[in-house]
Design brief:
With 276 residues, the chain is of the alpha/beta class. It contains 8 helices and 7 strands, in the order βαβαβαβαβαβαααβ.
């Protein structure tokens, strides 16, 4: 029996990469999964985003572990759509105990990053979208009166500035950095407001992970053009990219009873990048 037997987790951005890793890891611990993803392209993002097939593959992997999964296409920027996915999931699975506000993009390099739309997309998805995800779930978690855990995906870029020159200080990188810093304040506010209900709220801060958001030609292929950006994001430990499972393992601990008194914490999983 896993640490999350009988629990249900609500995960944004679950079609692939970190979101899928969270879904599979929590399913391995016994949780059923409700997840959603835009599963479509966004103009400011210079690499291919997830597809409907990716979302279906997440379901397949969760169900292969003997757990239930409900996955829908929805845009985290659409509050009504987020609420509808969760309502359908609760209708089918009965409850929600864990929230992983994970949906994210990296519009930080390339021509699209210099357009103001990259700022708006970053803020709308990774800051406003986090609030929409939490607001959808919190009323049910309170009504259940059994506590719960919320984890917001931030970044090492939420712990330090990563721009080292004006040419890398694009609208996209500014939006990404602002959103990843901003969710720390969101986390602390919810941690205080929900503590009396025994609902814990924390942020995770990964360094670059080997997922399609980072390991793509548009981003890694720009290393020679923007060496100062990659130097700012370098790790202290001798690893270029961590794995999505490294972050999912930390998340699985944070949402388990083993971390039952851990709340209001910004937890780096960053190979020492934040101390460089």
């Amino acid at each position: 029996m896993g640490n999350l037997e009988g629990k249900v987790a609500f995960i944004s951005g679950g079609a692939r990469g970190q979101g899928r890793a969270h879904a599979v890891r929590l399913a391995r611990e016994g949780a059923d999964i409700i997840t959603f993803d835009i599963a479509g392209q966004i103009d400011s993002v210079p690499y291919p985003l997830a597809t409907k097939d990716d979302l279906e593959e997440t379901v397949r992997q969760v169900e292969a572990l003997g757990r239930k999964a409900l996955a829908r296409q929805a845009d985290v920027r659409d509050q009504a759509a987020v609420e509808a996915v969760l309502a359908e999931g609760i209708g089918e699975l009965g409850r929600v105990d864990v929230v992983m506000a994970n949906a994210g993009i990296m519009p930080v390099v390339g021509p699209t990053s210099t357009k103001v739309s990259a700022w708006h997309d970053a803020i709308d998805i990774m800051l406003t979208g986090v609030v929409y995800t939490l607001e959808a779930a919190v009323p049910t978690m309170i009504e259940q009166n059994e506590g719960g855990s919320i984890v917001i995906t931030s970044s090492v870029a939420g712990l330090k500035g990563t721009a080292r020159s004006l040419r890398t200080n694009t609208y996209g990188l500014l939006g990404y950095t602002a959103a990843k810093h901003g969710v720390i304040g969101v986390m602390r506010s919810y941690a205080n407001a929900l503590a009396g209900y025994n609902i814990r709220v924390n942020t995770l801060h990964p360094t670059g992970a080997n997922t399609p958001m980072v390991a793509n030609d548009a981003f890694l292929g720009s290393a020679d053009q923007f060496p100062e950006l990659f130097e700012a994001m370098s790790n202290a430990l001798p690893v270029q990219l961590i794995e999505a499972d490294d972050v999912a393992n930390a998340a699985a601990w944070l949402v388990s009873d083993e971390a039952r008194y851990v709340t209001g914490v910004s937890l780096p999983v960053d190979a020492g990048a934040s101390v460089r």
